[in-house]
Write a structure and sequence with these properties.
Gyrase A, domain 2, five-stranded parallel β-sheet, Rossmann-like_a/b/a_fold, 20 helices, RNA-binding, ATP binding, Isoleucyl-tRNA Synthetase, Domain 1, ATP-binding, nucleotide-binding, 3 domains, four-stranded antiparallel β-sheet, aminoacyl-trna synthetase, alpha/beta, Rossmann fold
Length: about 575
RNA sequence: GCCCUUGUAGUUCAAUGGAUAGAACGAAGCUCUUCUAAGGCUUUGAUGUAGGUUCGAUUCCUACCAAGGGCACCA
C-alpha cells in the first residue's frame, strides 16, 4: 500500500532529521491539484531540539526540511514532494497510476473487495412492508439502503442473509379487512396483482379513516382484530388469506424489479406467541404489571429511556413483544450469526432502544450482536403529493412513473421492445435509488418527484450513461482490434486515474460506517472525470500509440463503475 | 417539559479537526464532419446565533434560536 509507504518514509525523515512529531495523518487532499497524498506532520512537529536562541523554525521551514529529505529518498511511485502552507504534498508518478490501472483491469469485477468481514455471518433486515397496506415510498427507501448495505458487507467478505419482517397481523390488517367487508367491490379478484394490491390499500385507508372518526366502526374494527388473532371466523379467515396472498405476490414483483432476493421471511403473527412466552418467563425480573397491562419500565435502567407497553390490558401483544420474539427467532434460526442488523425509519429509534434494553436484560450475549440503523423520512416538497397520473404516490406508482418517463426519453433510440422495457425499468430504479443513497442515511429526504426521476447531473442514470458510453468505446476498440496495454504511456496523468485507485478505500469506509453514500458520491466524481476524459480525448485511435493504454483505462473505469453501481443495488445496462 | 435527529449557495445534497468549504439543479454563454449531447467547457453564489477547546472548527463542547421525530396499551 502506497499510503503505508509514505508513512514509513515520513517516519524515516523524522528520525534522520532528529525531529519529533505527534500522531500525524496521511490523507488525500480535498483538491487534486494539491497532490495525491498530503500530511500535516510539519504542523505537529516539535523542533525545539534544533532551535537556538537566534533561530526559530516556522512550520513552512519544517515542512521544507522533511519534504526535502523525502525528495532525496523517494521511491519510484512518487514523482515529487512539495511544501505548501505547512503541509507536505505527495504527487504520485505516471508509473504508479499505470500500475494501479493494470491492477484494476486484472481484478475486473472483484475490484474493491476486502476481507475485513471475512468469515462473518450477518443478517440484514430491511424493507418490512405490511400485507394489506400499500408499498409506500418509505419502504422503497428502506429497501434501497438495506440492499446496498447488504451488498457492501458482502464485498467486504461477509456472508449476508437478507431478511424481511412483515406485519401480517395487527390493527392495520383489521382496518383493511373492515374496509373490504364494507365494500366488496374492492375485493377485485380478476385484475392484476398490482391493481388488487392498490384496492386493498384503498380498503385500508377507508378503515383507518373510520377508526379515527367513528366510534361504532372503531369497535367493529377492534372486534375484527380479535377474530384475526383467534382465527375463529371463517369469512374473515378467507378474506385474510386472499388479501395476504395478493399483497405478498405484488411485493415479490417489486423486489424483483428492485434487485432484492430475501433469504428469510419473518411474519409478525408467528412472533407474537414467542414474544409472549419471553415476557411471561421474565415477569417481575424485567416486566411488571401496570394498569392491567404488562410494561417494561426502561427508565429504571437508563434515565434516557421510557416505559413501554408489551402486553395490552386487552391481553394482546404489542409490536415490542413481537420484536422480542423476532430477535429470539433470528438467533435461533442462525445460531452462529455474528451480527444482526435492522434498518428502519428514525421514528422507530426511540422505542427500539427500549426494546433493545429489554433484550439486553434477557440475553446479555445478544446486545453486542445487534445493530439498529435508522434512516430519515421522505418528506414532500410543496403539495406535489400526487404522481404523474394524479394518484397518491406509492412506491409502486413511483417506480412505474419513473420507468414511463425513461421510455419517453428513449423513443428516439433504437432497441428491441423487450430490451427497451428492461432498460427503462433499470434506469428508473437507478434514478430513485440514487436519489435516496446519495445522501447520508440518517437525514430526511426532501422529496421532489421530478427531481427523483431526473436523468441529468447528479443522478443514477448519469452513472449508468457514463458506463454505457465506456462500453461503446470498448466495443469500438474490439472492432478495430486494439487491445488494452500498458507499454506506451501518455505523458499526461488524467484526473480519472487519480480517482480510480481510491475505490477500495471508499468501499472500506462504506462498510465500516454502514454508509452507501460514500460510494454514491465517489462514483459521481469518477464518472465526471471519465466523461471529461472522454469529451477531450479520442480514445480509440490507430494512429495514437497510447490508445491501448487509454482503452485499458476505459476498462478500469467500467469495472469500477459497474461494481460501484452493484454496491448501490443498481444495474448497469450495457446500452441505454 | 424530557429524550433523539438535523441546521452549509435561491433549491437539494457533500466535506475521516486541516489548505481557496465541493457537486448538482436553477440562471447566462459556448460545444456534435470524433467512440451515445442522458455528454463536455466557461461564468455566477453558502457554514442559524453567541461563547469555549485547538497551531487550526462546517466538524468537538456549552447555551440559545429553528425544523422534524419520540415520550403507556398503534406500528
Amino acid at each position: 500500500m502506497i499510503e503505508e509507504k509514505i508513512k514509513k518514509l515520513i517516519k524515516e525523515a523524522l528520525k534522520n532529521l532528529n525531529i519529533e512529531s505527534g500522531n500525524f495523518s496521511v490523507e488525500h487532499p480535498a483538491d487534486l491539484t494539491m497532490g495525491d497524498y498530503s500530511t500535516n506532520v510539519a504542523k505537529l512537529a516539535n523542533v525545539k531540539k534544533l532551535e537556538t536562541k537566534n533561530k526559530r523554525f516556522t512550520r513552512e521551514e519544517v515542512a521544507d526540511m522533511i519534504g526535502g529529505f523525502i525528495n532525496r529518498n523517494k521511491p519510484k511511485e512518487i514523482e515529487k514532494v512539495e511544501e505548501k502552507a505547512g503541509f507536505i504534498n505527495f504527487y504520485l508518478s505516471r508509473k504508479f497510476f499505470a500500475g494501479s490501472i493494470e491492477e484494476i483491469v486484472n481484478k475486473a469485477n472483484n475490484v474493491g473487495k476486502n476481507d475485513i468481514l471475512s468469515g462473518k455471518k450477518i443478517m440484514v433486515e430491511y424493507t418490512d412492508p405490511n400485507p394489506f397496506k400499500p408499498f409506500h415510498i418509505g419502504h422503497l427507501m428502506t429497501n434501497a439502503i438495506g440492499e446496498s448495505i447488504a451488498r457492501i458487507l458482502e464485498h467486504s467478505g461477509a456472508a449476508v442473509a437478507r431478511a424481511n419482517y412483515q406485519g401480517d397481523i395487527g390493527l392495520h390488517v383489521a382496518k383493511a379487512i373492515w374496509g373490504l367487508l364494507k365494500n366488496e367491490k374492492l375485493q377485485n379478484k380478476s385484475g392484476s396483482h398490482n391493481l388488487q394490491a392498490t384496492n386493498i390499500g384503498q380498503a385500508y385507508m377507508h378503515g383507518a379513516e373510520a377508526y379515527e372518526n367513528d366510534e361504532d366502526s372503531k369497535k367493529e374494527i377492534e372486534e375484527i382484530n380479535k377474530k384475526i388473532y383467534a382465527r375463529n371466523d371463517k369469512k374473515i379467515n378467507e378474506i385474510y388469506q386472499w388479501g395476504f396472498d395478493v399483497t405478498m405476490e405484488a411485493f415479490e414483483d417489486l423486489y424483483k424489479m428492485l434487485g432484492t432476493k430475501f433469504d428469510f421471511y419473518f411474519l409478525e403473527s408467528a412472533m407474537a406467541d414467542i414474544g409472549r412466552d419471553i415476557v411471561n418467563a421474565n415477569m417481575d425480573k424485567v416486566f411488571e404489571e401496570s394498569d392491567g397491562a404488562t410494561v417494561f419500565k426502561a427508565e429504571k435502567h437508563d434515565p434516557k429511556l421510557h416505559t413501554r407497553v408489551f402486553i395490552t390490558s386487552a391481553g394482546l401483544p404489542t409490536y415490542e413483544t413481537k420484536e422480542l420474539g423476532l430477535t429470539e427467532e433470528k438467533f435461533k434460526t442462525n445460531p452462529e450469526m455474528d451480527l444482526s442488523i435492522m434498518i428502519t425509519a428514525n421514528e422507530q429509534m426511540n422505542y427500539m432502544r427500549v426494546v433493545a434494553k429489554a433484550i439486553s436484560l434477557i440475553h446479555p450475549d445478544f446486545e453486542k450482536r445487534m445493530k439498529h440503523i435508522t434512516h430519515g423520512m421522505m418528506r414532500f416538497v410543496g403539495d406535489k403529493m400526487s404522481s404523474r397520473k394524479g394518484n397518491v404516490i406509492t412506491g409502486e406508482s413511483l417506480l412505474n412513473d419513473a420507468r414511463d418517463a425513461i421510455l419517453e426519453k428513449m423513443t428516439d433510440r433504437e432497441f428491441p421492445n423487450e430490451e427497451r422495457e428492461k432498460i427503462a425499468s433499470d434506469v428508473g430504479v437507478a434514478a430513485i435509488k440514487y436519489s435516496i443513497l446519495k445522501q447520508s442515511t440518517g437525514g430526511d429526504i426532501i422529496y421532489d418527484f421530478e427531481n427523483s426521476i431526473s436523468f441529468e447531473g447528479d443522478s443514477g442514470p448519469y452513472l449508468q450513461y457514463s458506463c454505457a458510453r465506456a462500453n461503446s468505446v470498448l466495443e469500438k476498440a474490439q472492432k478495430e482490434n486494439i487491445l488494452p496495454d500498458f507499454e506506451v504511456l501518455p505523458g499526461e496523468i488524467f484526473e480519472v486515474e487519480k480517482l480510480l485507485y481510491r475505490f477500495p478505500e471508499i468501499v472500506f469506509r462504506s462498510a465500516s460506517e454502514y454508509e452507501p453514500h460514500f460510494i454514491a458520491n465517489y462514483l459521481i466524481e469518477v464518472a465526471r472525470a471519465y466523461n471529461s476524459f472522454y469529451g477531450n480525448t479520442v480514445i480509440v485511435n490507430k494512429e495514437d500509440k497510447t490508445s491501448p493504454y487509454k482503452i485499458a483505462l476505459t476498462y478500469a473505469f467500467s469495472f469500477v463503475m459497474k461494481t460501484g453501481l452493484h454496491l448501490l443495488g443498481i444495474e448497469a445496462p450495457v446500452k441505454m
